Amino acid sequence: MEPSLLLRPGRIGSLELKHRILMGAMHLEIEGRRDKLPQLIAFYRERVRGGAALIVTGNVAVLPEGGGHGMFCLAEPDHRAQLAELAEAIRAEGGLLALQLAHRGRYATSAETGMTPWAPSPIASRLTKETPAEMTASDIAKLKEAFIDGAAFAASAGFAAIEIMGSEGYLLNEFVSPLTNRRADEYGQGHAGRMKLCLEIVEGIRQRVGTEYPVIYRMSGDDCMEGSTTREETLTFARELERSGVDALNVGIGWHESAIPTVGAIVPPGAFGPVAGAVRAAVSVPVIGANRIHTPEVAEELLVRGDLDFVAPARPWLADSAFARKIIEADREALNQCVSCNQACLDHTLGRPPKPVGCLVNPRTGREAEDVPAADKRLSVAVVGGGVAGMQAAKTAAERGHQVVLFEAADRLGGQFLLASRIPGKETFRETIRYFRVALQRLGVEVRLNSAPDEKELAAFDRVVMATGVRPYVPEALEGADLPLVCTYAELLSGARPFGRNIVVIGGGGIGSDVAHYLAEKIRLRPEVETFFAERGQDAQRPAESRITLVSRSEKVAKGVGPTSRWVLLGELKRRDVRVMKGYRCSAITAEGVWVENGEDKQFVPADQVVLCTGQRSRIAPDDEFGDKLPEASWVGGAIDAAELNAARAIRQAYEAAIEL
User: Which residues form the NADH:flavin oxidoreductase/NADH oxidase N-terminal domain (predicted)?
Assistant: First the structure.
């Protein structure tokens, strides 16, 4: 059989690539720190071994005011030295590394750089709440030379290619957009003027490094900003970039200020493929795409459809450092799929303060410089609890050479993660459970379902890891909590309780907000049903009318949900007409509904179903009577901290506990 398009060799200018799976740029929040250089090298080395045909670095600032926290900047001599060491290490590993040249423009902040940010025009950013300085003619000349010099440095330092960052609302993208470029000089006044700087930079780079050195331009395929660059202007820009000498176009989507989600789990896989496809139809150079391309099936579909020539996902390489190798080896069931949660990657880099990047489903991300030590002595290990923490502990312990038995009280693995997979946008959580299940089977871990061992049974093992997780908390003092119309979020998500028509969700944290979203999606008419009838000239029958009310004690609904996901979740609740009552506590439940209070304001909310999302408690805790009988046990996840469900923390703790066995 012919190899899939994804696995066929390809070219970007003079660069010959073994296949079409690249690793896109991502900021790791450790760049620029010499003490972190060994970890940075280890991170990229592991992805080279994982089969990446080409790896693109995270943003490297060409000038200091366009950088930020934890970034390389080419104005720093030691940063240049570190980058040269990085390039040499990746070449020695047999990999190809491209340097991404960037200037963050008005997305840079004076708090991080100590300098006033630059922009084409002095228009404040909703993201930073800061007004940038309008660039002078001298500033523009300085910027142009900085990009050209950066390309020359990359070529001399041994980088296989460069990528010019002209997307995601950064400075070069700001020059192209009429929203941020209102200049009256030659670099404004119409689309030709707005393109001028970007084209001059490409032409200047070509003059400096010659025609053979590979140049990729990351352009914005759609800013997802009302009033920004039009589709026709975007395609014209793509053609002009090709004429100026770029070897490939990497098509980015959206700005950080966009109201449309572009990378969240709510975005359908491959949704932006047609945007890149339009660019590909307009040019003859290869086109690269990334957004929401997390599986080989989606990647292959976009190549077959003609939308792309290469795929360059980023976050999937955090979830599985062997992303390409497993695809090449047709070992799809071993692939640890990115679930697009953003919790340990984008939420870390965009947090205040920012933190180094990790991954919810892969606790080794960010720790590649640390070896997983083989066990000095093979021990018998009992892991109690088959949620993601228990499965991670069992997997790591078995990888180290221990003999592991995993006990799970339910009839299936997954725990709270399995419940969460019912939430819209979190369906891929089942892929994580599948990944663990396959890994445990291959490692020879004995899994005992419907099994809750007692202390006598556990005493027969050399070591015990308690990963028993949490159970919903029902406040004893809440009047009416035991009425028939009341259920917990676990009962609802497991399918043990049918829906009501007038539903009140008590608790506006992450779980309560997710449950309200789940209910709102389940009671609406599914789009495919509506399409089915519309294509046949009929109107689909609407579901019976329902009402969902979310009662939140906090004024901040979905508190605790990461910044890159919270705004999307709140937008979905609003779009689905979920009534949100902020700052109200539930004082009592009756057979007809709930009483809620906010200071002197007391209201009755009619309901035929009340869902309690009022917190969690550990199923078994170290200070329980049972826990006291396990003095040598390691406790992880919700078993030691049930305050808020946090799968990333639980998986990390399980990994660390297994390393220490």
Answer: 7-328
Q: What is the pLDDT of residues 559-569, one digit of tens each?
A: 989 989 999 99
CATH topology of domain 5-333: TIM Barrel (3.20.20)
Q: Which entry of 69, 256, 471, 497 is annotated as an active-site residue?
A: 256
218 catalytic? Reply is yes
The catalytically annotated residue of 218, 292, 315, 566 is 218
Selected catalytic residue, list 343, 392, 609, 616: 343
Q: Is 343 a catalytic residue?
A: yes
Each residue's pLDDT tens digit, 73-105: 999 999 999 999 999 999 999 999 999 999 999
Ordered DSSP codes for 176-225: H-TTT---SSTTSSSHHHHHHHHHHHHHHHHHHH-SSS-EEEEEEEE---
Selection from 76, 70, 166 nearest residue 112 by Cα: 70
pTM (two decimals): 0.94
Single-letter code of the amino acid located at 228: S
- Which of these is catalytic: 45, 47, 103, 170? 170
* pLDDT attached to residue 141: 98
CATH 3.40.50.720 fits 380-471+618-659, yes or no: yes
Flag whether pLDDT at 1 surpasses 60. no
Mean pLDDT, range 523-531, rounded to an integer: 88
Domain 486-614 has CATH 3.10.310.10: no
Helix-, strand-, coil-residue percentages of the chain, each rounded to 5: 35, 20, 45
Could you state, in order of their start, the residue ranges of all structural domains in the chain?
A: 5-333, 380-471+618-659, 486-614
Q: Is 603 a catalytic residue?
A: no
